[in-house]
Specification:
- This protein has 1 helix and 20 strands.
- The protein starts with about 25 loop residues before the first strand and ends in an 8-residue tail after the last strand.
Length: about 350
Amino acid sequence: MLCDLCCRPSANPRLQGISLAGQSLGLIPIALCALGSLASEAQAEAQYSASSYYRYQESDYQSHSWSDSDPKHVSFGTGATGPSSFTLRDGDGYAASWGHADAAALDLGSSSWAVSTPNNYLAQAQLDATALNHLTITPGTSGLPNGQPVNLQLQVHLDGTLSVSGTPHPGVSDGSTSNVTASLTIHDPEGNTLAQLSASGSLSGITSWSMFTGEFQYGAKWTETWQTQSNIHPADPHNDSDTFSATGGGLKTASHSLNTGWLLLDFQSTVGQTLNVDALLRTNASASGDCASQSAFGNTLSLALTAYDPGLGLSWEVIPEPASLSLLLFAGPMLLRRR
């Protein structure tokens, strides 16, 4: 039986078209865009690294992997190939990812999902999206000399949804998990961190059955954490968690929306200094037995920078397109409303 997590078009449109227990529906192709480990060279770069592991209409489980890089933007598509419809038999599973990465706008997206049938061991997908760009602080029209200390403000935002679902069956305990990890770091050429965001979230769900009472049970727990810090501000952490439980047979679902709002962080640099700005967004989803999961952060890690001194120049190695430039660069201080 297909979990409701993967059936509802409004909640998970990319999961439409997959059916279980011999019922076949039309497949909507899955678009995947991902990025992998951070670039080690000096040039600006976008990268993806994606992987999946599942058994679908084969005698054994198969691993799949993709990776690529580009100086500005990288995208990649994956999903079912061949016929326009397919069926997940009992014992099958399927998993995929999609997303994007833009080195110029330092904008990342990553989503992964997995669906499993009652006698399937594991279906899992992971996507790493990364981007690197370089920013040089120039005097511009400010009249400030090279070497003059200046304050800047980083505005960064992350939001998305973690979802899991499962149907309990007698004699077995199965589960699913969805995870997200994100980071954004601004550092100087010597590797000193000037400003940083780190964030993570996790949601797990477990189905169970009591051999003594015959009762079906489902339990889920989510956690979220993020922290900002800079060379002029101490660490500012956030941590939260909660649990969910239900009894009885049938499909059980749980979800959690992770939303940092716009986080504002001041940091200090100097005129004439070139800064490295790199970002990572990773999603992971896994499921076993009659369960499913999704980590949906498809267009959600973004930033902007403010120069407090009027006329100060901020010159990027890779320049954003005009439509996204206003999201990345502001002249003078600004206020952002928290969402």
